[in-house]
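Consider the tokenized backbone below.
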């Protein structure tokens, strides 16, 4: 009886859901969201709000110029791109740039995220696209911004293999039709953003569509400084704060991270009730942004000691290995997933790595495990993330960068698509075994080197671990003092 009743309830729910999604439902919901989604904005953002990516700004200036004075371009018969695709990692400022283009040109900005198209009910994606383009055309000159383009623009052959998605295909086709259908002189320019240009459907990249593609790179040190300057415009800074130094310490961070960093520093000062943001606030913020918030954990004395030796192992190897990135901080305060952390900051952004450097990275990553092995004779689960780093670097050395004499100077790396779709890997079973053996050899050699170095420098290791147990966190200078190592000769910037 109960089952029957439940079944009945289930069926009647389904029925009403279907009715709600019927003709009336679509019109109602579509009409509503249409109005909300496509209201044009007039962003106040300008290029002054964007920093560190000057070459991108220069390319987009032309687009701004065209939107301001379409007539000038018409007269000269020059061609203006219909579509510009911004490619870059999340948080590098693509959305910000698109808004800045609209702001600079003073034109309406119609934006939508492509993932919203495909969330919609079947058949609505395409009509939303049509609606969006019609509104923009009526308001020309205008900008249409499609965020997360890869959500609809994925290569159709790949999508087919995953089981085709009609909605995505129809939406994509409609975007292509609209872009083919309008004349650039109508004054509408389509900007789109993606972080995965490699998966985009080639049809999107054909001439007359997104034929202009702009890479938005992660900022280098100077870029990071410029971005920090923007995001600290309204933050009262203490004279102890050297943004140049913070830019140096934030290698790998993108614009969104840096905004977050400035914000966290301001919050930290506010919590202290201070009126100026100090260097300490920035140091706390850096740790938080990089490693997550502190975690309250009660550790036994033995656990703390083990963690101290583990981190000291990383840090000491970072100091002893020639060419390794300088160690700027060690801590045994638990944060996020990790129980301790050793931070190494590259002298400057590197774009090309030598084999020695990579081996040094592996050896350093194994330093925690090596120290535990040396001191306690056993290892713990604390090295899981380290081993992941080791495996991925060693593997890339073998399959990607031809650094294994046995495997040879070949590139066997598989692209993402091949992995996802389970196609054949591009090498034989025999090669697969060779690769595995070589990855293991590299890791074994590096571990042996790590253990040997730590063994030979046992008193330095002890000194570091004890200092850590006492102070929880050590800065670059304190690390050198605790390990009884000389201060490095100053490296002059720009050299
Ligand atoms: P994306 O769209 O590439 O993921 P966003 O444009 O959404 O990145 O960036 C998020 C925020 O990070 C921006 O609103 C801005 O505050 C900050 N930001 C990112 N890049 C920059 C940059 N180059 N200059 C200044 N601020 C930036
Ligand atoms: Mg974005
Ligand atoms: Zn570790």
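A designed sequence for it:
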């Amino acid at each position: 009886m109960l089952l029957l009743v439940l079944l009945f309830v289930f069926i009647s729910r389904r029925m009403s859901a279907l009715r709600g999604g019927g003709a009336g439902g679509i019109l109602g919901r579509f009409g509503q969201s249409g109005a909300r989604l496509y209201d044009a904005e007039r962003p106040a953002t300008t290029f002054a709000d964007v920093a560190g990516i000057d070459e991108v700004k220069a390319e987009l200036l032309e687009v701004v110029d065209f939107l301001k004075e379409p007539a000038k371009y018409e007269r000269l018969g020059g061609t203006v791109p219909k579509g510009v695709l911004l490619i870059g990692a999340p948080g590098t400022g693509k959305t910000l740039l698109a808004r800045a283009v609209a702001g600079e040109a003073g034109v309406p900005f119609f934006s939508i995220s492509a993932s919203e198209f495909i969330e919609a009910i079947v058949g609505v994606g395409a009509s939303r696209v049509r609606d969006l383009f019609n509104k923009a055309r009526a308001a020309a000159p205008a900008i249409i911004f499609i965020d997360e383009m890869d959500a609809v623009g994925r290569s159709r052959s790949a999508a087919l293999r995953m089981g085709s998605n009609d909605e995505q295909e129809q939406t994509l086709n409609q975007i292509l039709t609209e872009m083919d259908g309008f004349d650039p002189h109508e004054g509408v320019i389509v900007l789109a953003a993606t972080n995965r240009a490699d998966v985009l459907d080639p049809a999107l990249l054909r001439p007359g569509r997104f034929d202009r593609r702009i890479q938005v790179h992660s900022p280098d040190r100077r870029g990071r400084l410029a971005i920090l300057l923007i995001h600290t415009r309204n933050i009262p800074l203490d004279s102890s704060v050297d943004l140049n130094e913070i830019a140096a310490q934030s290698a790998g961070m993108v614009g969104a991270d840096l905004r977050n960093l400035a914000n966290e520093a301001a919050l930290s000062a506010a919590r202290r009730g201070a009126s100026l943001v100090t260097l300490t606030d920035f140091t706390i913020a850096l740790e938080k942004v990089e490693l997550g918030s502190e975690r309250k954990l009660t550790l036994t004395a033995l656990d703390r000691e083990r963690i101290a030796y583990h981190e000291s192992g990383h840090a000491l190897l970072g100091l002893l290995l020639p060419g390794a990135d300088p160690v700027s901080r060690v801590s045994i305060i638990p944060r996020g997933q990790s129980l301790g952390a050793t931070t190494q900051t590259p002298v400057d952004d590197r774009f090309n790595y030598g084999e020695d450097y990579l081996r040094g990275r592996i050896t350093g990553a194994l330093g925690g495990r090596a120290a535990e092995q040396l001191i306690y004779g056993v290892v713990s689960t604390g090295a899981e993330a380290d081993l992941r780093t080791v495996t991925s670097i060693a593997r890339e050395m073998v399959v990607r960068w031809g650094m294994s004499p046995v495997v040879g100077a070949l590139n066997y790396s598989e692209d993402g698509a091949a992995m996802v779709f389970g196609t054949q890997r591009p090498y034989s079973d025999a090669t697969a075994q060779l690769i595995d053996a070589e990855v293991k050899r590299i890791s074994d050699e590096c571990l042996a080197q790590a253990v040997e170095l730590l063994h030979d420098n046992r008193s330095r290791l002890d000194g570091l671990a004890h200092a850590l147990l006492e102070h929880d966190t050590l800065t670059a200078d304190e690390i050198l003092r605790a390990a009884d190592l000389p201060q490095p000769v100053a490296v002059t910037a720009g050299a």
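Residues 94-95, 147, 193 surround magnesium ion (ligand 2) (CB under 6 Å).
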